[in-house]
Every structure is written in structure tokens, then in C-alpha cells.
Amino acid sequence: MSDTEADAPCSACGDPTPDALSRTVRLSVDRANIDTQRLCPDCFAEWIARYQREMETETDPVDGGGDHSDIIVD
């Protein structure tokens, strides 16, 4: 692997991110890849925090609310 592949940029901030530190977020619907993002640790942490905030504020149309405690983010 070349140095340019090992330090590919973060999709959010553009900083070079070594493979050992990068996280990949993939969005798939019905097994079709919709989006893939390579994120540095800081941008990944912000992505997780934003995802959790958005999930907490949504209401469930079936029960009118809910805390979404069954959502697991690894």
C-alpha cells in the first residue's frame, strides 16, 4: 500500500487519516450502497453525537414517542 492510500483524507474535514485511525461509515438501503464516508476520529465522534441527537428528537409514529434505546451504534 502506498503512503497516499494509507493517509487518504477524511471525508468531512479533509485531513490525512491513516488507516489505523480511520473509521468508515456506510449507508445501505436494500443492500445497495448509498454513501460511504471515511472519517478521522474527531469527525467520527461528531457523526456519532449528531446521529444520537437526531435519533433522540425523532418521534415514533407507532407509539407516539419512545426513547429509541434499542438503537445500537458501534
TrEMBL record:
A Pfam cross-reference name: DUF7569
Family matches, as InterPro entries: DUF7569
Domain of life: Archaea
Protein name (Swiss-Prot/TrEMBL): Small CPxCG-related zinc finger protein
